[in-house]
Amino acid sequence: MALILRSSYEACNAFMTPIFNAVALTARAPSKTLGVEIEMPNFDELFQRIQTVSPLARLAIAKKEGGFTALDNSNLQDSDGLNWKTLENSKAGQKPIHQIHKIDNFLDLGSPMLRFRSSLEGPCIGERFANFIMDFEERKKWDPQIASVCELYPIYDTDAANIHMGFCKYGDCSRLGIGYVTTKPNFVSSAREQLTMCGIQDFPDGSCIIWGTEMDDRHNHLLPKGERNQRARTHLFATTLMPTGPNTFDAEYILQLDCGGNIPAFLTTPVIIETVKSLFTHAKKYFSGGEGSELAKYITSQQQMDFLHRLFTEKKGILFAT
């Protein structure tokens, strides 16, 4: 019992340090928008939080492979002492999501920490999965509540982010920026808006972590001009993808979302769960692909771009391309 209490204390203690440091201690990097700098978060704190609630992220950052099977055979599977409740549990591969876990009122923030697990067929391409979330046209295909998604301030050079992260300590940051999201009103809540920092971390084995966290109130000057909606807040979000074979991968999606407006969690949680299920239903269909599919077209275009890049890199020039 003492060991469990200690583990739980240590896990919660990992969330005591703020993600964004005091202004005087903040590091910044230029964005692609002239005159706007991006405040760098405390990446150690951010990824410690992610690893605390996502064993698959812990596995990826530890540069280990094998997906959920490896977790079952290691001490990385829920060694945090947190009180997870199982909402759904089925055999991997039978459904787009085979496990759903929840911690009620996580850290007394009024909203649950949710965790979803999925095993999918198809190539593990993190950029494609991130596109489902970050691209408005893709988001509309599975999220009926979305009203707008835009990347307001992409970082000018991801090398700056990698320097602040400690040079591949948490993988290679291939994308980072501040984004803005609005949702439509529904039977539970009015329209909502969010201002989040999001990024993608790539690992040598093909794994990746797609992450996000809400910006602090002191960053509200970065919100686009116009009428304000009720603010929702993503306290923590991460999706970890890890290859489990030549054409299969595991995914673990964690989310703590406060929908704002003092709406009780028992009303908003079922809506969130159904929305995430819709995301993975879309992902399952997309990654299973096949000849002529959107995925096949994307892979072909990437192969062509890689070929041209190699030509120029090797200084053969475009005239030698056939």
Descriptive terms for the model:
alpha+beta, 12 strands, two-stranded antiparallel sheet, 322 residues, ten-stranded mixed beta sheet, globular, disordered N terminus
Concise synopsis of the structure shown:
This protein is α+β, with helices and mostly antiparallel strands and 322 residues long.
Low-confidence stretches: 1-10
Derived structural class: alpha+beta
In one word, what is the shape? globular
Share in β-strands:
25-35%
Q: What series of H and E elements makes up the topology?
A: HEEHHHEEEHHEHEEEEEEHH
**Cα radius of gyration in angstroms:** 20 Å
Total of DSSP H or I helical runs spanning 4+ residues: 9
Q: State the major sheet.
A: 10 strands, mixed
Taking the alpha carbons of the first and last residues, their distance comes to 69 Å
Return the average pLDDT rounded to an integer. Answer: 88
Determine the fraction of residues in helical runs and give it as a percent range.
25-40%
DSSP strand count: 12
